[in-house]
Amino acid sequence: MSVLDLRDVHRDFGSGASLVRALRGLSLTVEAGEFVAVMGASGSGKTTLLNVAGGLDRPTRGEVLVADRLLTGDRAALAALRRRTVGYVFQDLNLIPALSALENVMLPRELDGVRTAQARTEAAVALADVGLADAASRFPDELSGGQRQRVAIARALVGSRALLLADEPAGALDSTTGEDIMKLLRARCDSGASCLMATHESRHAAYADRVLFLQDGTLTESPTPSAPAHTKEDA
Amino acid sequence: MSIRHGLLALLTRGPRYGYQLRAEFETATGGAWPLNIGQVYTTLGRLERDGLAVRGAEDAEGRHVYAVTDAGRAEAARWFASPVGRADRPRDELAVKLALALTGSGVDVRAVVQAQRASTLATMRDLTRRKLGVAEPAQALVLDAQIFQAEAEIRWLDHCERSLR
Ligand SMILES: Nc1ncnc2c1ncn2[C@@H]1O[C@H](COP(=O)(O)OP(=O)(O)OP(=O)(O)O)[C@@H](O)[C@H]1O
Ligand SMILES: [Mg+2]
């Protein structure tokens, strides 16, 4: 079953002389359990792609299906589908300053209608998964940039969403913490979730099942895993 | 990679048979540099010739145990203390290839860059997968060395591609 399906998606910004054609007829299918990485230069459209895939932005043309349902029409239905199915890690993290780390992570589950005690337990586990068990009661402005980023990841992981959309999830993290996050995402996918991740870091992309390059508004795929390695010995 | 120094370093841990050295070397390095037993015995022969190791008496099964000498111990310590110079590594075929592609005609340099990047990334994915499967931190670090080298190559390729615009 495909969890995400983009069909000939276009996204234009502005018009006339200031027209930016960020996505130009892009198609992509992400299967259940698949971890897909998207790489591309700054401004190549990675964030635009994730926003459109998650229903946070609408394509100018083309179709987006999440869990086999078309992301169109009814706002309330769209919002519900989004909330239940998709976990997001944004480039700007959107943590709520007035809530502690734990409360920020609890929020999506409380919106799911889960009891507070249960939401609290799940949030504590998610924070422990990202190595922040000790920081649960701290507020966003009492955390480092990398710690805030990990809170945002915990928030996306809580409640076992079918689709994780992650925009540079390990951007502000040191190499070992970043790898721990990649292992978490990998493990999520191995247990059936799907993940679409934008990244500049090839080391992180290497955790994915597929790596796509975004260029000129469309995707090109790198060859399947065991492609021929170096031929340095041939020299 | 200096097999000679690698085996010498293992011998400083205690006397070893050739087959033991081979297994320990491969375990420590996560299988990154498979050795054949012939290479091991050739190298041990040279260590013995140079006075860095001594060969013990033959055992019942016709095998010899090797032990490090004082000179061997000193050489191993010197090896650990000396940084590896860039010049000790093989010349960079990829850089040479790109230079020739750029200065010649009739070669699609961008295609060369993209094919290389896809291949290096695939290698990196294989290495990452192997890393997730190893239990020993030392093995993971050896694989990491190759992963970070591949990463550097990809960054350089990205840089080349942007410079070509
Ligand atoms: N709201 C907007 N209005 C106008 N142009 C936009 C808007 N959002 C994005 N763009 C443009 O669309 C293109 C793609 O932007 P996007 O943010 O998707 O890139 P990106 O690949 O995520 O870059 P980065 O790696 O820097 O995060 C850029 O040229 C950007 O300037
Ligand atoms: Mg972006």
Poorly predicted regions of chain B are none
Question: What percentage of residues of chain A falls in helices of 4 or more residues?
Answer: 25-40%
Name the ligand types: adenosine-5'-triphosphate, magnesium ion
Q: Helical proportion of chain B?
A: 55-70%
Which series of helices and strands of chain B comes N to C?
A: HEHHEEHHHH
Largest interface, counted by CB within 8 Å of the partner chain's CB: A-B, 22 and 24 residues
Structure write-up:
Chain A has 235 residues and is of the alpha/beta class. Chain A has one domain: Rossmann fold (3-Layer(aba) Sandwich). Chain A is built from 7 helices and 10 strands. Chain A has a 6-stranded mixed beta sheet, sandwiched between helices. In chain A, β9 and β10 form a beta hairpin. In chain A, α3 packs across α4 and α3 packs parallel to α5. The radius of gyration of chain A is 18 Å and the shape is globular. The N and C termini of chain A lie far apart (46 Å). Chain B has 165 residues and is mostly helical. Chain B folds into 2 domains: 85 residues, Winged helix-like DNA-binding domain superfamily/Winged helix DNA-binding domain (Arc Repressor Mutant, subunit A), CATH 1.10.10.10; 75 residues. Chain B is 65% helix and 8% strand. In chain B, strands 1-3-2 form a 3-stranded antiparallel beta sheet. In chain B, β2 and β3 form a beta hairpin. In chain B, α1 packs across α2. Chain B starts with a helix and ends with a helix. The model of chain B has no long low-confidence stretch (mean pLDDT 86). Chains A and B meet through α7 of A and α6 and α7 of B. The structure holds adenosine-5'-triphosphate and magnesium ion. Adenosine-5'-triphosphate (ATP) binds next to β2 and α1 of chain A. The site of adenosine-5'-triphosphate (ATP) has 13 residues of chain A, from β2 and α1.
